[in-house]
Design goal:
Blueprint lengths: L1 H31 L11 E5 L5 H10 L6 E4 L7 H8 L3 H7 E4 L5 H15 L3 E7 L3 H11 L4 E7 L8 H23 L7
Parallel strand pairs: 1-2, 1-4, 2-3, 4-5
Length: about 200
């Protein structure tokens, strides 16, 4: 009986060690995302709505000439064009010529589908992906699955690291759990769209 409990404790310890090691690897990966060089251009910029700063970053990239088109994916149905314009900092002319609002996506898979539709309609080969730093690994995984062969350029919007406060730690841990679930799902059963 004692040996049985020792085995269970050893397995529990191993499981916790794997989780902690996985989260550390994930946090290091997130910390290593740097904005691409100013000279790097893409066919389109994709902003995934959510945390503060994403829309402003996408607007600035468009103004800087990093791409001729900006897709804002996951726009809430109640958000008006004026709301979005205000958050991006874009003028009426910049907005009307170059911004596409994606209102269908309600999650990261939906964001990837909206981006994939834009790619297929326009024959795009490269995208700058703008989202919070901790959200990039899962976003890139979903998009690579739906858009193999398209160059995805991560553009992190920095957030407080998990050691900054309890809220940040909870947010990063939740995202790590979601990323792990998506990674396992694609490892076991790749998406039909991937085939």
């Amino acid at each position: 009986m004692i040996r049985g409990w020792d085995g269970l404790r050893a397995l529990a310890f191993l499981f916790v060690a794997i989780l902690i090691g996985g989260f550390m690897s994930y946090a290091i990966r997130v910390a290593r995302y740097d904005p691409p060089p100013v000279s790097q251009r893409a066919d389109a910029i994709i902003v995934l709505t959510g945390d503060t700063g994403r829309l402003a970053t996408g607007g600035q990239l468009l103004r800087d000439g990093r791409s001729p088109q900006l897709l804002i994916s996951g726009v809430h149905p109640s958000a008006t064009v004026d709301d979005i314009k205000r958050h991006t900092g874009l003028t009426d002319a910049e907005f009307s010529c170059c911004v596409v609002l994606g209102r269908e996506a309600t999650d990261t898979i939906g964001n990837a589908r909206e981006a994939g539709m834009l790619v297929r309609e326009n024959g795009y080969r490269s995208l700058i992906i703008v989202t919070s730093d901790y959200h990039l690994p899962r976003s890139l995984l979903e998009m690579r699955t739906l858009m193999p062969g398209v160059e995805l350029i991560p553009y992190p919007v920095r957030t407080p690291p998990p050691w900054h406060n309890a809220r940040a730690a909870r947010l990063w841990l939740q995202e790590y759990a979601k990323y792990t679930a998506v990674w396992v799902r694609y490892s076991v059963a790749p998406r039909a769209e991937q085939a």
